[in-house]
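The instructor's notes for this session suggest beginning with a concrete chain rather than abstract definitions. Hand out the sequence below and ask the class to guess, before any prediction is shown, which regions might be ordered.
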Amino acid sequence: MRIERSSVKGPSRTYRVDRPAAPQAGGPVSVAAGADKVDVSDKVRQAGAIHTRLLEAPEVRAELVERLRSQIESGNYKPDVRQVAERLLKAKVLDE
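After discussion, reveal the predicted structure:
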């Protein structure tokens, strides 16, 4: 079998990427007609909104911390021991 190069003229253009020409300085910039597009579902938009709100929320509830701190310092902090025990059991903290 013999392969002749007469029909091949340069590298294959199979993987070539067509790129628009660079805009001239000071000239108008336009978006190509076949530009990429992303559609985002409502659930993703809602998740994004929730994420934004969480980032804006304070990491520590300052009012609660200050109220508890003053109760502890004054000796008036009386936690509900049953509620503490239930939450420890529910979180399986004592199983470890």
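Then share the key points. Residues 42-56 form the longest helix (15 residues). The mean pLDDT is 78.
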